[in-house]
Amino acid sequence: MPSRDHAAQQQAVARTVRRTLLALVAMLGFAFALVPLYDVFCNLTGLNGKAASQAKAAVAMEIDESRWVSVRFITQQGQGLPWTLEALDEQFRIHPGGQYSARFVFTNHADYPVRGRAVPSVSPAEGSLHLRKIMCFCFQEQTLAAGERRELPLVFQVDPDLPEGIRDLTLAYTLYPVMTPSSAGDDGAENSAGGET
Amino acid sequence: MASEQPRKAVLQASESEGATAGGAHVGEGHGSAPRGMLRWLLTTNHKDIGTLYLIFSLSMLFIGGIMALVIRTELFQPGLQMVQPEFFNQMTTMHGLIMVFGAIMPAFTGLANWMIPLQIGAPDMALPRLNNFSFWLLPVAFLLLLSTLLMEGGGPNFGWTFYAPLSTTYAPPSTSFFIFSLHIAGISSILGAINIIATILNLRAPGMRLMDMPLFVWTWLITAFLLIAVMPVLAGAITMMLFDINFGTSYFNAAGGGDPVLFQHLFWFFGHPEVYIMILPAFGIVSAIVPTFSRKRLFGYASMVYATGSIAIMSFLVWAHHMFAVGLPLVAELFFMYTTMLIAVPTGVKVFNWIATMFRGSISFEPPMLFAIAFIVQFTIGGFSGLMLAIAPADFQYHDTYFVVAHFHYVLVPGALFAILAGAYYWLPKWTGFYPHEGLSKWHFWLSVIGVNLTFFPMHFSGLAGMPRRIPDYALQFADFNMLSSIGAFLFGISQLLFLVVIVKCARGGVRAPACAWEGAVDLEWSVPSPAPLHTFEIPPQTRDGQIIR
């Protein structure tokens, strides 16, 4: 009799182990699923302040002349890129609905061509859903020749349905080097030279 | 009530060497146990493995403690005296990692291995060989982790929370080894958790319902489920780090379209349940000790179980309170603030139940009870500072200051560690057959209480005054508080050597303990002889309401 009990018990143990292993695998899958879920969640809610990475068509919007929003541009140096990025227009006072253009200057301080990219972030994060970028240097990677100085525009609109509480929008651009081998397609030789720094 | 003679017909000829002689017992049908090193390497006995876990955890406590003393020596006065800032950062990181993953968690697993089969009337853990494997993974993991200190570029230096991109883009080259060691330690905890769940759900003595189980078993069952749920998330997050570092992915790299904040979400989705993994078994230990030395039944057993369950469930809904300063929208700040404060309710239920258990009890103050009472008082202090930190607008001031350091050390050192010490004093008679030396134990207790409070209480003030954590040097106005903290840390650290002396003395001899070593103890472990023979409950006892009936 004890042996039959023992066998039944071993079976029950095996069942518990199978179930916990299943739960383990499910949770591991959940951890990796969180990465795309997080992106979807952020795209819908704008929670991480990531602005859309593609150009939007300019639309004629009603300009809300009664309301002022101040838009500020800040730029940050990323590590490993011998560039500077300057916002020529540091601050705008705008009406929601209007179309505005800000000028930015990229300078490559290295004596060789370098490929890089400016990655945007909007603060407060909720504002990112109401910012329409019609043209932005941040949509593509840039390659600057040795010592090149290049002026690039940002054309944007702010939706009139921007939440009432938001009076200031800050657009931050951080410079990052582009070093992935896959991006070396068009001008690979000079790029890899720059990537070594 | 348990009587003083063994209820099972397990004959123990010689108690002091009973463990090694135990191989001759009938029933299991195997020959005599191997001796010497091989016995410990190959053992599948839950008591041996429990002992291994506890010894491992104690040695990690001392290694992590030495690192803490390096930190406190540097912070004794302002300026850089002892170590370079790079090494200081490695010390804060390694101290945290070793104490969390090497000292506290294995100590609870060790106690679980020793006590859960005894408390539910099972002959051993459900998966004894897996048990051996999950223990021996640990020394491997921590040797690997400690070896990173000797590698070029030094060990991990980004804090125990290893936030990306500090731990990816800016990390030392040894970070991949750190990730592997954490993988191994994580697998060890997961296997331990599977084993504990399988044991508790399937190996209970006939007649023992779930609601008859001692609370230590209950809290560990819930802890094991937490481990199953969140260790894979940690494994996932560090695997993504590994990919970011070595294979050019951009999970956490903003330059490639990733998001470093995602790392914090993943980490704290693991990390907050993790802090309950380190405290729920402590609740179980205290819930065993307080009724014993109050000579009363535990007040509100069922509410204790439900409170533990609700704390576990709610631990999944509060993670972002670690990230109030990261730039969350207002709605999220409010949500996480309220859920965090809500956790104080079940925790309060527990604290009040312990107090109600002591109320009008016939209390005696043996060392386990002293540590348990100190746990209740000091853990509550840590709980209150936790409530202060939960207030999102106030947290912007407290964030990353020594106030946070004071908070989590209060819940982990005079909280979790004191509960482990209480459990060790409580069960040492069962493990060795002798009572721990009472005088030395009380010296250990009082020096620890004074040391721990002298160390961590001033940190509240230096933190509120604005001293940031994880810095090797600080402004002059924090000098007095830091000097007090450093003196306290050395007092606390040195007094733990007393604990070592107590254990060694207790293993060698002393006042002999009967089967039921404490007057008010009622759980099943007190029905087997002291010291517990190698094999117990080979024939499952019949129980009713958690007590043996024949």
UniProtKB/TrEMBL annotation, chain B:
Pathway assigned in UniProt: Energy metabolism; oxidative phosphorylation
Annotated localization: Cell membrane; Membrane
Record membrane topology: Multi-pass membrane protein
The keyword S-adenosyl-L-methionine is assigned to this record: no
Tagged with keyword Cell membrane: yes
Domain Cytochrome oxidase subunit I profile residues, every copy: 34-544
Keyword annotations of the record: Cell membrane, Copper, Electron transport, Heme, Iron, Membrane, Metal-binding, Respiratory chain, Translocase, Transmembrane, Transmembrane helix, Transport
Region feature (Disordered): 1-31
Transmembrane segments: 49-71, 91-112, 133-151, 177-203, 215-243, 275-293, 305-324, 336-356, 368-392, 404-428, 440-461, 481-504
Principal location: membrane
Pfam families: COX1 (PF00115)
EC number: 7.1.1.9
Catalytic activity field: 4 Fe(II)-[cytochrome c] + O2 + 8 H(+)(in) = 4 Fe(III)-[cytochrome c] + 2 H2O + 4 H(+)(out)
Residue ranges with Gly residues bias: 20-30
Function: Cytochrome c oxidase is the component of the respiratory chain that catalyzes the reduction of oxygen to water. Subunits 1-3 form the functional core of the enzyme complex. CO I is the catalytic subunit of the enzyme. Electrons originating in cytochrome c are transferred via the copper A center of subunit 2 and heme A of subunit 1 to the bimetallic center formed by heme A3 and copper B.
PANTHER family reported in the protein's UniProt record: CYTOCHROME C OXIDASE SUBUNIT 1
Family note: Belongs to the heme-copper respiratory oxidase family.
Protein name: Cytochrome c oxidase subunit 1
Originating species: Cobetia amphilecti
Gene name as annotated: ctaD
